[in-house]
């Protein structure tokens, strides 16, 4: 089993915890197959607020990926396309069971000093 910690904007981390955002989009993927994501909600929260299982990883052109995911993307088409501007390939984690932490954790609880730009293996 492979876990990663992702830095996610609070707007989107809250949607994931509420179960309305079913996809987390990324421009690059880890080399290992990810089974679970720890959600680090960025400023102003700056805490690990929960975790989510990964059901599947989707890979396609940005336009095709948007068509597949738009109903539960949790992001506008404009922001989506801007994020993947000049990219031939787009990736999405299809999110599964969510676990919201009753007591959010600090990065230091995981031996991490600073929030990752992309991801960090746990």
Give keywords.
about 20% helix; alpha+beta; six-stranded mixed sheet; globular; single chain; 6 strands; about 120 residues
Report on the architecture of this protein.
The protein is of the alpha+beta class. It has helices at residues 10-18, 62-69, 77-83; strands spanning 3-8, 23-26, 36-41, 47-60, 90-105, 119-121. Strands 2-5-4-3-1-6 form a six-stranded mixed beta sheet. The longest helix has 9 residues, at 10-18.
What is the percent of helical residues?
Answer: 10-25%
How many strands in all?
A: 6
Instruction: Characterize the biggest β-sheet.
Output: 6 strands, mixed
Rg result: 14 Å
Indicate the overall shape. globular
Q: Structural class, judged by helices and strands?
A: alpha+beta
- Summed over residues and divided by their number, the pLDDT gives a mean of 97
Largest sheet, spatial ordering of strands? 2-5-4-3-1-6
Report the total helices: 3
N-to-C CA distance: 10 Å
Strand content: 35-45%
Quaternary state of this entry equals single chain
Note poorly predicted spans: none
Order of helices and strands: EHEEEHHEE
């Amino acid at each position: 089993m492979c876990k990663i910690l992702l830095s996610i904007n609070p707007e989107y981390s809250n949607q994931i915890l509420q179960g309305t955002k079913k996809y987390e989009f990324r421009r690059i993927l880890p080399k290992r197959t990810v089974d679970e994501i720890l959600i680090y909600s960025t400023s102003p929260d700056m805490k690990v607020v929960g975790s989510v299982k990964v059901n599947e990883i989707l890979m396609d052109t940005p336009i095709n990926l948007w068509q597949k995911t738009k109903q539960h993307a949790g992001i506008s088409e404009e922001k989506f396309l801007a994020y993947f501007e000049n990219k031939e390939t787009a990736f999405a984690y299809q999110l599964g069971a969510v676990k919201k932490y009753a007591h959010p954790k600090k990065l230091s609880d995981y031996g991490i000093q600073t929030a990752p730009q992309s991801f960090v293996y746990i």
